[in-house]
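HUMAN: Please help interpret these tokens:
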Amino acid sequence: MPLTNLQGVELYAYDLNNTGPDMHIGPADSVSVVGFPFGIQAGGSLAVWATGFMASEPEVNFKELPTFLIDCRSRQGQSGSAVIAYRSGGSVAMKDGNTAIFSGPVTKFLGVYSGRINSESDLGIVWKASAIKELVDSI
């Protein structure tokens, strides 16, 4: 998608062909929704990191769509936000059952946040990175 009016804007794109190390991500693991709740910005016009937890099995589709659930106090303005697994380094469990040692921060792009299941719940829906890649590739 062509972007316009980028004066003074720095882009930090996620590579949909390489979403990050093959970390094991499962229920109760921490995830971050990186966006602009209520339109607010963190210092330097950067996004706010809201941290929550995986609330469903990421490999199993929620409601037969390529989505999964998170439990996070996300709010208006965060729809469309990146959802990532962030680990500060050290020992990280990998999908293949091994443990990898990282000397610095590691991130894995998990998908895009689309909103809460209803206004009374902190459960939110995330479209999987694979679905985002498929959509972008189709454009």
